[in-house]
Amino acid sequence: MLKIENLHVDVDGTPILKGIDLEVRAGEVHAIMGPNGSGKSTLANVLTGRDGYEVTQGKISYRDRDLFALSTEERAREGIFLAFQYPVEIPGVSNLYLLKAALNSKRKHLGLGELSAVEFLKLIKEKVKLVQMKEEFLHRSVNQGFSGGEKKRNEILQLAVLEPLLAILDETDSGLDIDALKIVAHGVNSLRDAERAIIVVTHYQRLLDYIVPDYVHVLANGRVVKSGDKELALELEKHGYTQLVQSSGEGAARSAGA
Amino acid sequence: MTDPVRQSYVDSHRSVAQRLPGSAQPWLRRVREAGLSRFNNVGFPTLRDEDWKYTDVRVIAKQPFLPVLDPGDGVDGERLRPLSFAGLESHRCVFVNGHYAPHLSALGTLADGIVVDNLATVLNQQPRELEGELGRSAPGELHGFAALNTAYLMDGAYVRLGRNCELELPIELIYVSTGTDDNRRVTYPRNLIIAESGSRAVIVERFVGLGQNRYLTSAITEVIAGPSAHIDYYKLQEESQRAYHVHGLYLEQARDSAVTTNNIALGAAIARTDIQVSLAAPGTCSKLNGLYIGTGKQHIDNHTQVDHRSPHCISDEFYKGVLDGRARAVFHGRVVVHQDAQHTDAQQQNKNLLLSPNAEVDTKPQLEIYADDVKCSHGATVGQLDPDAIFYLRSRALDESTARNLLTYAFANDVINRFALDPIRRAMEGRLVSKLLHGQQLEDLA
Ligand SMILES: Nc1ncnc2c1ncn2[C@@H]1O[C@H](COP(=O)(O)OP(=O)(O)OP(=O)(O)O)[C@@H](O)[C@H]1O
Ligand SMILES: [Mg+2]
Fold it and tell me: Which residues of B52-63 are buried (b: 16+ CB within 10 A; e: fewer)?
């Protein structure tokens, strides 16, 4: 579904991603972990086509197409969804409006008709229940005045409504209490099937108890320094990143010296 | 040596003075003469005037505009039909090129104690009724345009709401201007609205241009709100693209009165509105909502001044502007809390959205407080659409232009939602779509 090869990305002329290789197949869940500033959100932003990230080398294919040929909105319509680490507040646009506009835009692209008001409301009510949100949140401006946890849950509501093929969750667990974490995990897991893939960016093993990954990757200094299965996350929880990061630093020094 | 344009306004006044309505009345002659001599002294404002330093009216001042003495014809019901707001039933008073047009008006039935008439008729037939009232709430030192309006005042609306009278339907005053092909006409609409104690009404004042002629509208609206009167006032300015529009709205509020002014500016090449509110008795509440949308090379200037002269008064001002192209806007909001005005609650906000790098706004919120026990705040912002919000919406499958339109719409909708009159709100949404969103209809955001 997603194949990233030798991806190098600069931000403001500074290399941030320095040769990432990652393959995600349909049906899989990948967790990406790694220290602050290692490039996890950068990778997520590149996948969604945000401005300001210059790809200097490498390629990404998504469902056998060149991802870079697609605009942000085309990627969304083709099934890519990013749950943001820092969801944006949009005063004056209600949650309900955004959900409807987003869903219909996607359906239109896929050649499906727009949902009627009744069908839409039925769907939304179902999804709101799934993420255990109060319905009044639908009528509030997108994320405006939401608590940190409410914003994250709102991202999962959007995810549940848009049913993406490739969902990327960027630290959706940060700032969630244990109950909210379970709800979010439940929302994500209910999407899990053989057609879809999920990338979970997190700092905490705890989330991975609920969304159990097939693979875990450690990103440090803009590179994947280690990949493994879910045991790797447990190991990291115990020993931290220090050892891994150091060895990657050495690697970088060596290649620079060569 | 006086300048020849100024002189020509004075000269032409001499030749028309006898033909102005109520010209036989000494008191009215004095009012007009005072206006004329004021104009003769100050002329048109220049960039050196503190209150006009961002609004250059030299193009207006360089050649004399001539008063329209007859309404002229050419405007019939057919041409007015598209101007109606869907769903708005009203007591309608139409003026064409500054003169009352009875065949286009529909006053309907008015309850006892309520007068809606045109000023020229009243000045000719019962001039006494207006003595001491006309000009009462206007400031002592009129600027040149307002002085000219007073010198030439010819026609406009006269509304009187008797004690405890309530109007169910809004009064709609429509000033239609066509100009003439010489592009040199000026009209001087003048309104006097007196709401006696306990009365209630909604008043919608509209300035509409038909055609492409250049013309000048120099208008004054005086509103005197008596004790406990409630007035909801709307101004919707949609002059033609080449027109010049200058309007003073002078508002005097008595004890416990509540007035909301909703000031919407969409049209004209140069538009200037002055709103002056005097809160002269305790317990008054004044809300000032404003929305201005400039495109092309429009210049839109709004000056508001709220004088808190008495304790326990509330003012709440909220103005928003959206500017595209090379449009330029000025917002100058002055709130003065005088020494005796303890327990004043005065809020003021001005927010601007620039959609183009060439659009510009000068905003000057100004708060002067001479009392010590008050609750006041003010603020102004100028910004562009939030790129993070655009990206967020695009990441949710909305295309870029829809994202931009949606955010623009949401910005303006914030003040449109304050307009209590439903048909106006809906009409404004339509205007927004056609003026800013390149015709893209968006569904209800709620
Ligand atoms: N717009 C930018 N300008 C300059 N540097 C940037 C910009 N965006 C990201 N960076 C830098 O890129 C590096 C990677 O940032 P990124 O947000 O991808 O880290 P992260 O792995 O998501 O960290 P965290 O765990 O704290 O969320 C950081 O050093 C950050 O400062
Ligand atoms: Mg991050």
Answer: bebbebeebbee
**What is the rounded distance in angstroms from the CA atom of residue A192 to the CA atom of residue A209?**
15
Q: Which percentage of chain B shows pLDDT scores above 90?
A: 87
Closest to B396 (Cα-Cα) out of A137, A135, A189, A100 = A100
Task: List the domain range (segments joined by +) for residue B442.
Answer: 386-446
Q: Ligand 1 atom closest to Cα of A219?
A: 21
Give the residue from B281, B302, B319 where a domain finishes: B281
Residue B372 within a domain: no
Residue B349 in any domain: the answer is no
What is the architecture, at CATH level 2, of domain A2-254? 3-Layer(aba) Sandwich (3.40)
pLDDT score recorded for residue A254: 39
Distance (Å, whole) CA A208 – CA A201: 10
Q: Given this model, what pLDDT does residue A141 score?
A: 94
H or E segment to which residue B213 belongs: none
d(CA B74, CA B68): 14
| pLDDT on residue B120 | 96
Task: Summarize the confidence of residues B346-356 as an average pLDDT.
Answer: 97
Distance CA(A81)–CA(B97), nearest Å, equals: 58
Cβ(A252)–Cβ(A245) below 8 Å: no
Average pLDDT over residues B28-42: 95
Q: Determine which residue's CA is closest to atom 5 belonging to ligand 1.
A: A11
- Enter the tokens of residue B218: 């120099």
- Sorting pLDDT into bands at 50, 70 and 90, what band is B142? very high
Q: Residue A254 has which token pair?
A: 């060596």
- The best mutation among A41, A47, A170 to test binding of ligand 1, ranked by most ligand atoms within 8 Å of the C-beta, falls on A41
Q: Which of B291, B392, B399 would best serve as a mutation to test chain A binding (most A beta carbons within 10 A)?
A: B392
- In which residue are the tokens 């120099």 written? B218
B127 within domain boundaries: yes
Two tokens, residue B196 = 């006696």
Question: What's the structural domain count of chain B?
Answer: 2
Owner of token pair 């295309």: B399
Q: For residue B311, tell me if it sits in a domain.
A: no
Q: Is A239 exposed, middle or buried (0-12, 13-18, 19+ CB in 10 A)?
A: exposed
Please answer yes or no on whether A92 and B391 come within 8 Å at the CB atom. Answer: no
- Number of DSSP helices (H) and strands (E) in chain A, helices first: 9, 12
CA Rg value for chain A: 19
* Pairing status of strand B344-354 against strand B374-383: parallel
* ipTM of the complex as predicted: 0.94
* CA gap B348, B363 in Å, rounded: 12
Map tokens 């910005």 to a residue. Answer: B411
